[in-house]
C-alpha cells in the first residue's frame, strides 16, 4: 500500500476512534440514577414525577435534542428517549396539557416569549423535524398555564437572510 493510502487510512481510523470516544454510553432500562449520571454527566434539569424523577439532558446543536431518563420510585430507569420529535409533540393535547406536563414530556424550553395581544406565554423548542428540517416548535400557554396552541415552523437561526451581517449580502 502506498504511503499516501496508509496515511489516509490512519487518519480515518484516528478520526473514527476519536468520535467513538466522545459518544456517550447507552442508557439502559434498569440503570440507576448514578449509572445514568456516570454515563451522561449531570442532567441539565431534574423534574419530580408522580412515579419518580426525570433526568433531562438538553443537547445537540442549538439544543435540537433533549433526552429524558424516566426513573421509578426506586431510582431505576424505566425509559430513555429523545423527546423533541413529531411523535412526542403530538402527545401534548391543546386545552388539556399544562406547564408541568409539558416539562415532564419535552423538558425545558430553549427560550420563552410573550405575545401581549393574545396574552399567551410561548415556550420554544428547536428540533429536527422528521429528523431532517431545522424547525422550531412553539407551545402557547394561557394565564392558567394550559396549552392553547402548538405551532411549528422553520428555525429562524438557520435562515441565512436573517443572520447579520452576512444575510444582507446574500440577496
From TrEMBL:
Signal sequence annotation: 1-20
- Keyword Signal part of the UniProt annotation: yes
Q: Which UniProt keywords apply?
A: Signal
Name assigned to this protein = SmpA / OmlA family protein
Amino acid at each position: 500500500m502506498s504511503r499516501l493510502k496508509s496515511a489516509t487510512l490512519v487518519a480515518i481510523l484516528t478520526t473514527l476512534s476519536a468520535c467513538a470516544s466522545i459518544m456517550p454510553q447507552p442508557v439502559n432500562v434498569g440503570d440507576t440514577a448514578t449509572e445514568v449520571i456516570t454515563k451522561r454527566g449531570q442532567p441539565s434539569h431534574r423534574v419530580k414525577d408522580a412515579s419518580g424523577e426525570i433526568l433531562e439532558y438538553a443537547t445537540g446543536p442549538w439544543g435540537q435534542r433533549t433526552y429524558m431518563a424516566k426513573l421509578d420510585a426506586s431510582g431505576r430507569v424505566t425509559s430513555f428517549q429523545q423527546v423533541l420529535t413529531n411523535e412526542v409533540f403530538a402527545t401534548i393535547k391543546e386545552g388539556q396539557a399544562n406547564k408541568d406536563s409539558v416539562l415532564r414530556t419535552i423538558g425545558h424550553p430553549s427560550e420563552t416569549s410573550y405575545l401581549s395581544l393574545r396574552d399567551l406565554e410561548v415556550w420554544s423548542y428547536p428540533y429536527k423535524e422528521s429528523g431532517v428540517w431545522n424547525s422550531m416548535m412553539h407551545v402557547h400557554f394561557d394565564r392558567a398555564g394550559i396549552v392553547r396552541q402548538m405551532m411549528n415552523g422553520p428555525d429562524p437561526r438557520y435562515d441565512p437572510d436573517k443572520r447579520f451581517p452576512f444575510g444582507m449580502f446574500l440577496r
